[in-house]
Amino acid sequence: MLRGLLIEDEQHVREELQQLISKNFANEVSIVGEATSVKEGVKAILTHQPDLVFLDVDLGDGSSFEILSMLPEINFEIIFVTGYDSHAIKAIKLGALDYLLKPIDEDELTEAISKAIQQKSKAKSNEVLVDVASNFYKNKVHNKIVVKTLEAQHILNFEDIVFCKSEGNYTTFHLENEQVLVSKSMKKLQPLLDDTIFLKCHQSYLVNTSYVTKYLNEGFLVTKYGDQIPVATRRKDEVLSLLF
Q: Which tens digits make up the pLDDT trace of 33-52?
């Protein structure tokens, strides 16, 4: 059974989480403690040594990222809890971490906990994932994204991504010597990538402008590795003005 910890400053949210967890995961998750602030949160984690922590992003005396930065290691699964804070949500998505929106949706909670139970059986560290999210949230470094495949979690530096190609609900990240296929659409991924680096030249393509070497009059951008990236007719003038 997983040892769960609630770090949330709203009592009604803590009570709702407790109720839903007891209802759906009585035999899988046991809530061993609660905390309502950064100070209490650090103490609770060190005291209870949880397997799974529900973390409110914004607490009365700071943010949950402050809690995580004070710990000697992050050896537990994390499910962030937040309101409709677009900045916090983008940070969490950059780190490919799980989150729940308030008010809590029971189906989303069930899905998030089920994933956490599966992940806990695999040896891995969350520290890099948290670092990516935390840096963006604190307006520090924003130069990488974490993406998950069936086999692994990939930390991709923006400078290493040559281009992205979308096919329906799947997107392939093309790097110099590797391709990473993820089950997310371009629409969901584009907002997470730096738009000063990546240019949408076609409905299905995002290209890293630093790799573009020329434009072919047939309607293609060419990368330093010889990839030919199509340019949509309606985007041609904008693309060329930005690049050249």
A: 999 999 999 999 999 999 99
CA angle 139, 145, 146 (to 5 degrees): 125
The reported pTM is 0.86
Residue 29 corresponds to which tokens in the numbers above? Answer: 């998750």
CB 162 within 8 A of CB 210: no
How many domains would you assign to the chain?
A: 2
Query: Does some domain include residue 73?
Result: yes
Claim to verify: residue 85 and residue 188 sit in the same structural domain: no
The domain boundary residue, chosen from 108, 137, 166 = 137
Amino acid 122: pLDDT = 53
What pLDDT is stored for residue 152 in this prediction? 87
Residues 43 and 33 sit within 8 Å (Cβ to Cβ): no
Please state, in angstroms and rounded to a whole number, the distance separating the CA atoms of residues 136 and 217.
Answer: 39
Query: Which tokens is 128 given?
Result: 């890099």
* Domain co-membership, 125 together with 71: yes
Q: Residue 233 sits in which domain range?
A: 156-243
pLDDT mean across residues, the chain:
94
Q: How far apart are the C-alpha atoms of 97 and 213, rounded to whole Å?
A: 35
73 and 191: one domain? no
Q: Is residue 142 part of a domain?
A: no
Instruction: Classify burial at 148, counting beta carbons within 10 Å of its beta carbon; exposed 0-12, middle 13-18, buried 19 or more.
Output: middle
The secondary structure element, H or E, covering residue 35 is: strand 29-35
Three-state secondary structure of 157-197? EHHHEEEEEEECCEEEEEECCCEEEECCCHHHHHHHCCCCC
**Residue 35's CB: how many other CB atoms inside 10 A?**
25
How many residues make up the chain in this entry?
Answer: 244
The verdict on residue 36 lying in a domain is: yes
